[in-house]
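Example 3.2
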Amino acid sequence: MHDPHFFGYGSLVNRRTHVYTPCHPATLPGWRREWRATALRPAAFLTARPVAGSAIDGLIAPVPGNDWAALDQREAGYDRVPTDAVHHPLSGAPQIAVYSIPPRPDDQSECPILLSYLDVVVQGFLTEFGEEGVTRFFQSTDNWSLPVADDRAAPLYPRAQPVSRAETVLINGWLANLGCRIVDASTTGLGPDAAP
C-alpha cells in the first residue's frame, strides 16, 4: 500500500526546506499559482487555485504512515485538497493532496511578498527544472502587483536559504521584468510572525 503524497508547488519544491523523500518532479494540470494577501498573516502566501487550461510544475513526496500533522502545521492557513490530476513518474496511483487557500472574505490588497520566501521558491525551481522551469514558475503565477519586501539581509522567512550571486541576479531580473515594486522590509512593520 502506498503512503499518501503531497504535491508541492512553492517552497516545498526546495528540498532543503523539508525531510520528505523520495521526491519526484510532477505537474498539476488545471491549476495556477497566485500570491494571496489575507488577514491570516502580514505577508502574502503563495497558493494555487483551479484554472482550466493551466498547469504548474512541482514535486511530489510521500507522507510516511499518513501522518500529516507536521506538514499541516507547516502549511497552516491552507486547506489540504485531494487531487487525482497530478502527472508523475510513479507506478500505481498514490493518493495525492495539494495545499490551497480558498478565497476568503478578509482577502486584502497590500500584504507584501517576502523576498526571502520567493528566493527559496525560485531556488527550488532552478534546481529541479532549470531556468526554463523558473520561467514557467513566473509565468504561471499571478498577483505580482503586490509589493515585494526585501528582507534578504535579515530574512523573516523561517526556512530561508542562502542564494548565490547567479540566483540573486536571476530573481532580481525577473522582478524587474515584471515591474514589481520593491520595498525595504524594515519599513513595512513586518515581524517574525509575518512568514507563511
